[in-house]
Amino acid sequence: MKRILITGGAGFVGSHLCERLLNEGNEVICLDNYFTGSKKNIEHLMDHRYFELVRHDVINPYMIEVDEIYNMACPASPVHYQYNPIKTIKTSVMGAINMLGLAKRVGAKILQASTSEVYGDPAVHPQPETYWGNVNPIGLRSCYDEGKRCAETLFMDYHIQNEVKIKIIRIFNTYGPNMNPNDGRVVSNFIVQALQGKDITIFGEGTQTRSFQYVDDLVEGTIRMMNSRDGFTGPVNIGNPVEFTMLELAENVIKLTNSKSKLVYMPLPQDDPLQRQPIIDLAKKELNGWEPKVHLEEGLKKTIGYFDDLLQNR
Ligand code: NAD
Ligand code: UDP
């Protein structure tokens, strides 16, 4: 049995990780400040004898004896990370320093949830880990993109200078149950709009592309990365290479919900990347042949079911 700290454990991805690692027989400490996460995501775990919940902000140091740390704390939706940009960059940078300091003191292995956003609006397509990115350092998205880039630097420096055992994953767009219905990301927006019969908000012309993975595939890749061979630090892309436009996504959601919603077109947000698709050869090689298993339609059906229940029981 390992003792595992998950920062941001009450959020969308963190809550799935808490559940999976508990089910595998570990002791899990979930740390969160509830900025975008919610106790509801983890309330079914509260009675588990090996689950603990701590209200704490990662910009402040935290002391605990653990074997592993999954550093997931950070708002991930553009609406939320732009709400208080200074707090967002503090969360990534000071959060990384505090968690790396903890890992160094107690000899824990630590995994960083980095992001495809480190590639910015990519001039190389699809994106391999060797691509350094095309990021605006002073734009609306910079607090997130540059915060995550700085966190990657800190992880590598603690590894090189202090021999901290680190793992870095670059997560591409992920969706699934426990997403916050108000968090402004495209999958939750489209599904909630379709279920409520409201207009589906397409930003720009809807021709921009993304590659979405279902949360179970991400959790599998994340845990495999934590358990990967000593000395393999990453960064490694974890995402689904199947790429589609936002218009295609809207059409899929409308079909699967039998919705009468209409499409409306709104301005494209500043610095919105035009395209994004991971190359996952490194993950396949280093993570025992890991690759996404859940097809978009299957994942969307599960996510629609989740939001349907949530909206009816509100
Ligand atoms: P989320 O917003 O649902 O979860 C983030 C969690 O972190 C929330 O519970 C929030 O309350 C908590 N948090 C935020 N700031 C904190 C702070 N200062 N101290 C303590 N807790 C704090 O987002 P998510 O989609 O679950 O993302 C989890 C991680 O994965 C994030 O680091 C994100 O950058 C990364 N990521 C996610 C995606 C995606 O598509 N979901 C893509 C790339 C990277
Ligand atoms: N988007 C959209 N309508 C929405 C929300 C988002 O068309 O209601 C677009 C957004 O402009 C972007 C894509 O969907 O091109 C993905 O947005 P999201 O915020 O989910 O993730 P990110 O931009 O961080 O990849």
UniProtKB/TrEMBL annotation:
Pathway membership, UniProt: Nucleotide-sugar biosynthesis; UDP-alpha-D-xylose biosynthesis; UDP-alpha-D-xylose from UDP-alpha-D-glucuronate: step 1/1
Coiled coil ranges: none
Its EC number(s): 4.1.1.35
Database matches in InterPro entries: NAD(P)-bd_dom, NAD(P)-bd_dom_sf, UXS-like
Record-annotated NAD(P)-binding domain positions: 5-303
GO cellular component labels: cytoplasm
Cofactor: NAD(+)
Location(s) in or outside the cell: Cytoplasm; Golgi apparatus, Golgi stack membrane
Any GO BP annotation: D-xylose metabolic process
A GO molecular-function annotation: UDP-glucuronate decarboxylase activity
Pfam families hit by this protein: GDP_Man_Dehyd (PF16363)
Membrane topology: Single-pass type II membrane protein
Keywords per UniProt: Cytoplasm, Decarboxylase, Golgi apparatus, Lyase, Membrane, NAD, Signal-anchor, Transmembrane, Transmembrane helix
Family annotation (PANTHER family): UDP-GLUCURONIC ACID DECARBOXYLASE 1, UDP-GLUCURONIC ACID DECARBOXYLASE-RELATED
Family affiliation: Belongs to the NAD(P)-dependent epimerase/dehydratase family. UDP-glucuronic acid decarboxylase subfamily.
Protein name (record): UDP-glucuronate decarboxylase
Organism: Gelidibacter gilvus
